[in-house]
Amino acid sequence: MKLREEMMKMNLNTAVAALAISVATVTAPMAQAESQDPIKIAVNEWTGQHLSANIAAELLKKMGYSVEMVTAGGLPQFTALEQGELHFNPEVWDNSITDAYTNGLTSGAIVDMGQLGLEPREGWIYPDYMAEQCPGLPSYQALYDCAQAFANAESFPNGRLITYPADWGTRSKSVVEGTGLPFNPVPGGSEGAMVAELKSALASKEPILMMFWQPHWVFAEVDMNWVEWNPAQGECVEEDQQRDTACGFAQASVNKIVSKSLPENWPKAAKFIEQFTLTNAEQNAMILEVDQGGRPLEEVVQDWITANEAKWTSWIN
Hints:
- It contains 14 helices and ten strands.
- The protein is an alpha/beta fold.
- The protein has two domains: 37-118 and 253-316, Periplasmic binding protein-like II (D-Maltodextrin-Binding Protein, domain 2, 3-Layer(aba) Sandwich), CATH 3.40.190.10; 121-245, Glycine betaine-binding periplasmic protein, domain 2 (D-Maltodextrin-Binding Protein, domain 2).
- α2 packs across α12, α2 packs across α13 and α12 runs antiparallel to α13.
- One of its GO terms (molecular function) is transmembrane transporter activity.
């Protein structure tokens, strides 16, 4: 009996030791954060980027890092990253960049951590009913002859083109000027303002031509068409186009970028960032939940984290 009791005690001690090792393994990332200085993550103007930034932030927190979310304009953020005032942006569309971004990559002040995994498209979109008023669409050449079909009182006789918000760059304006299209580019105020104007136009079948992008929930809810351009001969440069050979817009890759201080100060975080990915399908579904379902972004982020634990566990360990 005594021998049996001793064996039971040994087994209990072994079990407790195993549990302690297991707990240590689970909590190890929390204990191994190289610094408690906050990793500052850029938050831009569109819902998809809010989602990618907040998912990355929550996973970094699971690794034991302090995280600070910083609202950052699409253009000024590159200077802040170059100067180390921001540390990380998980979703940078590389066809909306500035000299500060390019120079930062060249100097090493900004580090490219690879693609996020999205498969984007950008360009001008229009609804089916506008094709009836502008024969020849989807070719961009049709817009020369039916610009008035897209006009409003302020733009007439030119068509009205809703472009990206001003601090996202002037790519549509460059294409209009280079090709001589009779359209007035009008910057949208924000993603939300652009979507509201699109939905209003669709509801009353008003004319609309808008610069837009995917992934986005819009394409899961309404039928929209893309203006088509000539195939690019090499790189498509918005600032250098002519009427007969216009290629429209360079199609982006979506990259994760960091300041050089991040891999220096938080090397384990840098390894996580290299592995972090999202797909169009994942992001589209989450954007729809937030923008149309009215769910808090934080809840949608937590749903993704819960559903994808098998995926992200390997990233953070």
